Amino acid sequence: MKLxxxxxxxxxxxxxxxxxxxxxxxxxxxxxxYGGHAVISIGHAHPHYVEAIAxxxxxxxxxxxxxxxxxxxxxxDRLGAISGYDDYQLFLINSGAEANENALKLASFHTxxxxxxxxxxxxxxxxxxxxxVTDNPKIIAPINDNGHVTYLPLNDTEAMKAELAKGDVCxxxxxxxxxxxxxxxxxxxxxxxxRRACDDYGTVLIxxxxxxxxxxxxxxxxxxxxxxxxxMITVAKGIGNGFPMGGVLISTKFKPVYGxxxxxxxxxxxxxxxxxxxxxxxxxxxxxxNAAKVxxxxxxxxxxxxxIKEVRGRGLMIGLEFAEPIKELRSRLLFEQxxxxxxxxxxxxxxxxxxxxxxxxADDFLSRLHKxxx
Length: 374
Fold this sequence. Notes:
CATH topology of the largest domain: Aspartate Aminotransferase, domain 2
Number of helices: 11
Shape: globular
Strand content: 15-25%
Largest sheet: 7 strands, mixed
Number of strands: 15
Order of helices and strands: EEEHHHEHEHEHEHEEEHHEEHEEEH
CATH superfamily of the largest domain: Type I PLP-dependent aspartate aminotransferase-like (Major domain)
Distance between the termini: 46 Å
Number of domains: 2
Radius of gyration: 20 Å
């Protein structure tokens, strides 16, 4: 059987990782400034994480959600404490797209409405509702194109208010920082106005923190720079440091009903062990604070490169926009300088390293980048 060929692949077979470094099958070492799409939060093969998963899988890897799983409450307690959302509820699933699906479903149950506001360049996943609120017609199949969504320009307060004033919007879904869209940052003022407008018109505010959350921005959630509290927050990627897991943090205005939501694998014992280990390491090693410090340093230094048209982001979620397409530049970084980076569109390089990136590793990256672009 052949693999379904939907991924353009680099001819590199990564077989091992440690911290912010990975090695291929030939023994070549690479500096990882991408973390597998912002998934690696605490670093590759962290010993505490490895030990926690090994111990759990040797004890019990999985049982169904029809019985008590105290590990789920442990995740909820730790996540509530570190994020400042200990008064919210937690529903655990398997991925970011699934988190957004469930958040949108809850919003519709709550309001009885079906229309959603999303934003230009948004990316929220590839499943039914998640892909419909994603601003990319190329990946929205006809069966998903159901006319539920209005896309608005990001940071356009007047357009947002006018749309919500129609009184029929079920939910607004917005990324804390747009990732696939090119590291576009909502202004604090826009986020504050959005929160007020959602309150005024009975609209649910969903913050997609799947890529921008879990400490990546230098705060636990990127929206916390604006001092707002959304009705729901969706998380995934960094939650399990590579183990597939997602979640929805849910305000107490939503009352759970038996059978309303469900999942086979979500919140399983092994996933919870991974999530608990991640939160342990984040707290003990101060990784949110490290992301803020090292990220601020990188942002400032990168602004000194004349070849870069614009530097955007917060913490260790950074976009480098160039005047010309960056395909060759990214290739040279990878094959000549042995640095993994991401991309957004044709002109933006994305940096999403593990949150344990050190100052010396940041300087190492800057040195390698300098060799490519001067």
